[in-house]
Amino acid sequence: xxxTLITIAALLSATLSANTAFAYDxxxxxxxxxxxVMVRGFNDKGGMAxxxxxxxxxxxxxxxxxxxxxxxxxxxxxxxxxxxxTSVKADTWHDLCLVTTSGLPxxxxxxxxxxxxxxxxxxxxxGHSSGSxxxxxxxxxxxxxxxxxxxxxIRTNAKFLMGASGSGLFDLEGYLVGxxxxxxxxxxxxxxxxxxxxxxxxxxxLPEIKEFPISGKALWExxxxxxxxxxxxxxxxxxxxxPKLAEVAERxxxxxPLSPDAWFALALSQENMDKLSLADESYHHSLTLxxxxxxxxxxxxxxxxxxxxxxELNRVYTALNNIDKEIGDQYKKFVECTxxx
Length: 341
Fold this sequence. Notes:
By secondary structure, the protein is of the alpha+beta class. It contains nine helices and 15 strands. It has two domains: 1-207, Thrombin, subunit H, CATH 2.40.10; 224-332, Serine Threonine Protein Phosphatase 5, Tetratricopeptide repeat (Alpha Horseshoe), CATH 1.25.40.10. Strands 6-5-2-3-4-8-7 form a seven-stranded antiparallel beta sheet, with no helix packed on it. A six-stranded antiparallel beta barrel has the order 10-11-12-15-14-13. It is elongated.
């Protein structure tokens, strides 16, 4: 899966249409792109604090509350235009702040649902990564979905960098499905998480705050042992700390034995510690809980290829082909690939 940062022009002119797995609605994504704004403000040291936001209603922008922690006078900016933030409704634990401004001439986004996403579904993150004056688009896919009550917290490989906190995660029809919020870091690469779009709806019932900065700990800043297991597992995975991942996954599978993600994490740690038989069992167990987990099927196929199990490779191909014919075809080419490929 591709996870490159590109401009909107590149997104709309790239050869995605040649690959149906990346089919997208050009007009809808253009509209989504123009719903993204910067949230800025000077901190107490005179430096610039900044993040991203998404226009979700007339004169209303959603962003992460942690973007507003260090500035007393935040504002919205689009190019050379700026709009004062007059009030905010803050859910600091969920790290979502709905800010109000006036005269913002930007069309709100269309709301989708994180609850209807599927693992491996293609998504696009759009935000001001690294403080870029124009939003950048990061293409990727859904790698995990976790109960958010309501909605689902989304793990994705659609990259976002500093400055894109509070930016939008969209499906390829241009519907907002999540707010890019936190990530891990490690030599294995960052793991990115977006909060469910469904959480935005509850903000309207909160009282208005007119004084800044905003304070309060977010759920992803909780003590490590108090975080949900999917957060605990992300850090050692991104750092290639397989013994630690195994320890977290063992506890995860005991606490949530019906979680396919828990068994997948356990299998991943076992595979990378050369416990291949155990890994194969754990991947298969994950698949009994989620038969459409493309990542797990591919892992099962990798192990089958190593031991020369052609019957299992054919079973994997059939399963992937039933989930997504194009992915099945790509997998078959990979399996048949020789050293000259």
